[in-house]
Fold:
Amino acid sequence: MRESIRRISVLTRRNLKEILRDPLSLIFTIALPLFLEILFYLIFHKMTAQFEMRYLAPGIVGFAQAFLTLFAGLLISQDRNTAFLTRLYVSRARSHEFIFGYVAALLPIAFTQSILFFLVGGILEPQIFSVGMIWGVLISLVTSLFYIGAGILVGSLANEKAVGGLSSIVISGQSILSGMWFPADGLGKGILIAMKTLPFKNATLLVQNAFLGVEKVTVDFLFPLLILLGYTVAVTVWAILAFRKKMKGE
Structure:
């Protein structure tokens, strides 16, 4: 166990250095959602409650995390195209240690996103500053694991050219099926069922409800959490198996 933790720690430090070598992708992952948060608030917050910062800030957190899928996918696919992973394949490191090393390196990005979007939201609407922000940031680390896992899976299965297209499915799903840009009440029953069973709306609800507080803990928090954790475990296990297959094949 100690040796496994040490190898994961070494891989994490290496991945952090690799992330910092590509600052443009890192800036894009944070700057674009931040720009949208400010833009949509300034244009629409007086028209509809959907874009008041108490709803918009946690929604943007979930939207930004979808970009972690693209970021993680590109990171792994680029590593697969270099001699780095080929050299490591002959080491004692196992496939799950590789995966956890990537996850641990990407979590600080998710943490930075959440803090930044809540702080900017509070600057624009000071009344949202509350203890709920802390809970929102903490639960966002849990929701980010799904998107990071999805990105690792995409990067393990596809080459660098295909990662963008596959990751856009997750980004589009978060944009359309999370309900952050429009009220979901007027949608058809089939769409509502899909939104409740897929991870995107559940991830947004978790951050939003952790921030605002919940009245019905089971319905508003535990159910979304269980659904999201189910998807997170599924994509993570699939990513480990896919990565292991690539290790054996290469």
About this structure: The chain has one domain: 2-249. The mean pLDDT is 86. The first helix runs from residue 2 to 20.
